[in-house]
Amino acid sequence: MVIIIGSGPIGLATAIELKRKGIESLILERGCLVNSIYNYPVNMTFFSTSDRLEIGDIPFISHGPKPTRKEALEYYRRAAEHYELDIKLYEEVTAVDGSDDNFTVTTTKGSYSCSKIVLATGFYGQENRMNVPGEDLPKVLHYYDEPHRYAWQNVLVVGGGNSAVDAALETYRCGAHVSIVVKYPELKPSVKYWVKPDIENRIREGSVTGYFNSEVVEIREDEVDIRTPEGDVTIENDFVLAMTGYHPHFGLMKKLGIALTDDEKKMPVFNEETLETNRKGLYVAGVVCGGMDTSRLFIENTRVHAQHIAGDIEKKLNG
Ligand SMILES: Cc1cc2nc3c(=O)[nH]c(=O)nc-3n(C[C@H](O)[C@H](O)[C@H](O)COP(=O)(O)OP(=O)(O)OC[C@H]3O[C@@H](n4cnc5c(N)ncnc54)[C@H](O)[C@@H]3O)c2cc1C
């Protein structure tokens, strides 16, 4: 029996590949099915085409060229149903004891024995904080949902990636007065190519105020201080959407005995071919493998982990 921690696309793909080899698995998920995708912005569209998000050879047909969050939720639920995967939801893994072929996995609800473990916990549950005064005010959000509640409000978006750009454009189009603070001289090169001209033109014409090479210094109930190359400025503010990225749960990985590289990437140490970590019998899969470097790995290029892991486990279980 293999325990897979996390029911994201890659956790599901791994369970499917194991099932195809006749190996039993159980997925333990702390939230709902594909919890990260569930928590994406409501109107989010993937940058990948649907065929690149497919798992288990099940066709993913979307209405447009790029699937929506809603379509992805339905697709992954149907894939899990089709393969009759064994999944326990709302059950968080908190500890792993024992060793290869004889692990005990402890959750918030109980404990399970298994021979191998696959950690497929992603990164979306832990936000990168700005570490500035006022960050804990309720008006500061690290997860953007949908635009309506920001209508006619002074909204400051922090960040220069896709999440920041989507939040800035959506809230602007819903009547918010939007400013965007970007740490670097320009937006990230990874911003969706069909969206980039839109935000750049809105900034150029002044509909959205852009502060580049700038950082938030302090957030107060009605204002935010921003450090810009021209000096500090204070702007009126009702909401801060801090789209500053996310990172894997390093605390859990350390607790599970997974070594991390000691550079700024903090990548888990694993065998590139098998995905087995330094803790024998414990594998990593999906975007958790990238450590802090979260913009390099996606569903697209980590789906293949499922086959590598299932192949290695099959080899080991069958001697
Ligand atoms: C806004 C956004 C848009 C994206 N768009 C694309 C795209 O277009 N194309 C693409 O390829 N990628 C995209 N990505 C990246 C990729 O989709 C996600 O990171 C993807 O969900 C990664 O899959 P995963 O299975 O590795 O991890 P996740 O989907 O993050 O799944 C991890 C799961 O583990 C669970 N979990 C965590 N800790 C525990 C625990 N202790 N116990 C039990 N369960 C736990 C979580 O609740 C979660 O359900 C996007 C990411 C974001 C944030």
From TrEMBL:
Pfam families: Pyr_redox_3 (PF13738). The lineage of its organism: Bacteria, Pseudomonadati, Balneolota, Balneolia, Balneolales. The keyword Cell cycle does not apply. InterPro entries: Auxin_biosynth/cation_transpt, Bdr, FAD/NAD-bd_sf. Gene3D superfamilies: FAD/NAD(P)-binding domain. GO terms for molecular function: flavin adenine dinucleotide binding; monooxygenase activity. This is YpdA family putative bacillithiol disulfide reductase. SUPFAM superfamilies: FAD/NAD(P)-binding domain. The keyword Transcription regulation does not apply. The gene is ypdA. Keywords: Oxidoreductase. It comes from the Bacteria.
